Amino acid sequence: MSTRRPIWIAALYSLVLLTCSISVAKADRRVALVVGNSNYSNASLFLANPKNDATDVAAALRGVGFEVLQAIDANKRDLDLNMAKFARLATDADAALFYYAGHAVQYQGRNFLMPTDAEVEDEISFRYQMTPLDDVRAALDRGDGVKIVILDACRNNPIVNALRRKKKSGDSRAIDAVRGGLAKIDKAQGMVVAYSTAADEVAADGDGRNSPFTSAFLKRLKEPGLEIEQLFRRVAADVNAQTGGRQRPETYVSLLSNYYLNQTDRIAFDKIKDSPDPAVLQDFIAKFSTSSYVPEAQNRIQRIEAAIRERQNQEARQREAARLAEEQRKAEREAALRKLAEQEEALRKQETLRAQAAAEKVRKEREAAQAQEEQRLRLVAEKERKEREAAKAQEEQRVKLAAERERKLREEALQLLAEQARTKIAAIDRKEPTSPSLAGISTDIRTLPPPTEAAPAPADPCDRDGAMLAQLRSNPSIEAVTELERSLSCEKLRAQILRLRESLSAVANAAPAIAAQIKPIVEKIAPPPALVIAPPPPPPAAPKQEAAPKPPEPPKVAVATVAPAPECKKDEARLAKIRANPSHADLAALERDLGCERLRPQIVRLRESLPKEIAKETAKETAKDAPQPDQPSAAANAPTLQSAQSAPSGAKPAQPAPIVQVRSCDEERATLAKLRASQSREDVVRFERELACEQLRPQVIRLRESLSGG
After folding, report:
1. Nearest Cα to 644, choosing from 399, 477, 479, 421?
2. Pairwise CA distance, residues 254 & 189, whole Å
3. Is the N or C terminus of the chain more exposed, i.e. has fewer CB atoms within 10 Å?
4. How does residue 343 score in pLDDT terms, banded at 50, 70 and 90?
5. If residue 264 lies in a helix (H) or strand (E), which one and from where to where?
6. Angle between the 494-503 and 600-609 helix axes, to the nearest 10 degrees?
7. Nearest CA among 705, 500, 481, 532 for reference residue 601
8. CA atoms within 13 A on the CB side of 171
9. Which of 102, 123, 109, 126 is nearest to 46 (CA)?
10. Strand duo 30-36 + 95-102: pairing
11. DSSP string of 93-148?
12. Strand partners, 99
């Protein structure tokens, strides 16, 4: 029974709240049209305050829940359009209000509102240029609720006096009925009419922002809980006191029940009337002390306090009963927990046994899978090992064939160069040396024994220039490179010669140094001489061109570079090992301990071509595949491999073995190290096409560009 009673009370409260909310929603349907005309086209009719009055009244009405249409300085068309909108808006409204501030007159007992563009000359002007108050009455009659008209007009209207002067002068007819004040409106059920002054009287415009009537109306409209008739009685008292009795507002009320313009107290009370908190109701009484809802709020407070006392007593009884019930439930819960603990213990043991069995099964499956995986990895590793061995054997075979081929080509090039050197030395002997530092060089070189076998000069200029360029790469000299560039016949090699000359930033072997070093070395040299001679001029023209001989050119001085000194051989061996197995640390140590200065540009170019960081694992893998010192080194054959590109077409070199497709970045990194040592552009291009490790592609591109023929 105690549970059903609060539910029934809550349902009743919900029904009351729903009914009140519906009634409030209906009462909130209130509309208004506010008009204020100050700036008339006739300057003598100007009024200062109507536009201020209309603006302030519109804001005040919006504050108390009206939907407001506002028109300031409305001409006849604007006033008619706003009247039409207001008539539509007032349809079925619970309250419709019209407020007008400006000039108005009465003619033959009818009231007319004056638009700003009205020009009243005679009685015809009233019908066509003025707005009859009857139109306002018709718009208000479309509403279902309270109809309110507030007229703050007839403010010392000079039109009345002007029409009367016209009468005396005979300019107008039938204007005896024109008066400055407004006539009374016939009373109608549900209507409230408030005049700013008595009938047939005029109202003052006022000296402040608002007229006396509007000022008093705005003041009283802010007081919630004032019944409309009581509100206008207080407005009339305020205006009478302010004007010293010169202006006496009048109000006509024809309502069957009370009506409140300012319903903020009702709205506030509707929100808190069902509140169970007495403090909220006390706040309402303090804020709206004059409201008609104050007695109801006080009764509500008394009922709430009584209910609170009853609820406190009932809660005390319920707490005692709950305490006893809780003790009973506690005893029952403890017994149930003991039983549940026993069941959980039995289940835990069963779960432990199942988990052990499942773990044993998983362990066996994992061991079986691991054994299968190990077997698979062994097979894969064996397959990869065999593939690596096959690739390594194929690569070694290719390197051996290329080394043998390049060795033969190098011997032929050396023989050709030695023969050409002796030819030039004979030419130098016929003329005094241009530099004292070169004196004696040709004599020493001339005493060298001839080569054992003189190879015939290559027929193709590109083959000859390519062989010389390969020799200069092995034993670089800026003078020899410059001489080769001047006498170059194969233009497709010019780009490579330019890059080689630019890399030799300083002249490593000047003429005085050559003169000082060549004599003791030449004495020890044995055939075939390890001598690099500046390339000879292009081969002589055909016999048919000898008929027109050219003027003899001045002889060119042949600059020779001697065979590498022991420290250069040692540094070249170290550099070859680093090319085969690139390492920043080894390259830095070689550059620090360098004794052969002519190798420094090569070291700088190698350092710039290496990546910023080479993994240790890559270095170890590369070291295993690098050639041993006692085997034909790919680095030692670097220049000859380059010259093989320009070998005569008659000698068909063995085709290089294709590069085995790599399986990882480590294997491709090792292959790239071998390509750096071999300097074969075809192999680099093939390797670039088959490259799988994208992080090595920038290094491969730089290597290919350094070996490009332009």
Report:
1. 399
2. 5
3. N
4. very high
5. helix 264-272
6. 100
7. 500
8. 9
9. 102
10. parallel
11. -SEEEEEEEE-EEEETTEEEE--TT----SHHHHHHHSEEHHHHHHHHTTSSSEEE
12. 34, 150
Residue 193's DSSP bridge partners are 149, 252
Residues 6+ positions from 607 with CB-CB distance below 8 Å: 584, 587, 591
Pairwise CA distance, residues 385 & 499, whole Å = 41
In sequence order, which residues have a C-beta less than 8 Å from that of residue 691 and are 6 or more positions away? 668, 697, 700
Contact 227, 221 (CB under 8 A): no
294-429 helix and 278-287 helix, angle to the nearest 10 degrees: 100
Residue of 288, 249, 253, 248 lying closest to 269 (CA atoms)? 288
CB atoms within 10 A of CB 337: 10
Q: Across 234-368, where does the E strand assignment appear?
A: 250-254
260, amino acid identity: Y
d(CA 700, CA 685): 9
What SS3 state is found at 179? strand
Q: 510: which 2 tokens?
A: 């000047």
Q: Which two tokens stand for residue 369?
A: 């899978």
Distance of CA 227 to the CA centre of its chain: 62
**Cα(333)–Cα(337) distance, integer angstroms:** 6
**pLDDT of 117-127, one tens digit each?**
988 777 787 78
Highest mean pLDDT among 147-161, 164-178, 498-512, 686-700: 686-700
Length of the chain: 710
Place of tokens 């680095």: 635
First vs last C-alpha separation in the chain = 106
Calculate the alpha carbon distances from 349 to 272, 338, 344, 357 in Å: 63, 17, 9, 13
Whether the CB-CB separation of 182 and 104 falls below 8 Å is answered with yes
User: Which residue in this structure is represented by tokens 């690569």?
Assistant: 395
pLDDT(257) > 90: no
Peptide bond just before 528 cis, omega within 30 deg: yes
483 contacts 556 by C-beta, under 8 angstroms: yes
Between 132-141, 488-497, 559-568, the lowest mean confidence (pLDDT) is in 559-568
32 pLDDT above the threshold of 50: yes
Contact residues for 420 (Cβ-Cβ < 8 A; gap 6+) = 533, 535, 536
Return the bridge partners of 113, or none: 104, 131
Buried b (16+ CB within 10 A) or exposed e, 245-261: eebebbbbbeeeeebbb
Neighbour tally for 652: CB within 10 Å: 9
Q: What is the pLDDT of residue 430?
A: 64
The number of CA neighbours under 13 Å toward the Cβ of 130 is: 24
For residue 151, list its beta bridge partners.
Answer: 100, 195
Contacts of 629 (CB under 8 A, 6+ apart): 573
The stretches of 130-227 forming alpha helices (DSSP H) are: 133-140, 158-169, 212-221
- What is the token pair recorded at 570? 């040692």
Contacts for 488 with CB less than 8 Å, ≥ 6 apart? 465, 494, 497
pLDDT value of residue 149: 95
Q: Given its phi and psi angles, is residue 204 left (phi above 0), alpha (psi -120 to 50 degrees) or beta?
A: beta
Over its C-alpha atoms, the chain yields an Rg (Å, rounded) of 60
Average pLDDT over residues 296-318: 87
Residue with tokens 């009795």: 245
The token duo for 416 is 């050709």
- Residue 224 in 3-state DSSP? coil
Residue among 256, 50, 60 nearest 154 (CA): 50
**Separation CA 488–CA 465 (nearest Å):** 7
Tell me: the pLDDT tens digits for 381-428? 999 999 999 999 998 898 889 888 888 888 888 888 888 877 877 776
Q: In what order do the strands lie in the sheet with 110-113?
A: 131-132, 110-113, 104-107, 178-179
Q: How many CA atoms lie within 13 A of 569 on its CB side?
A: 6
Pairing, β 110-113 against β 104-107: antiparallel
Rounded distance, CA 217 to CA 438, Å? 124
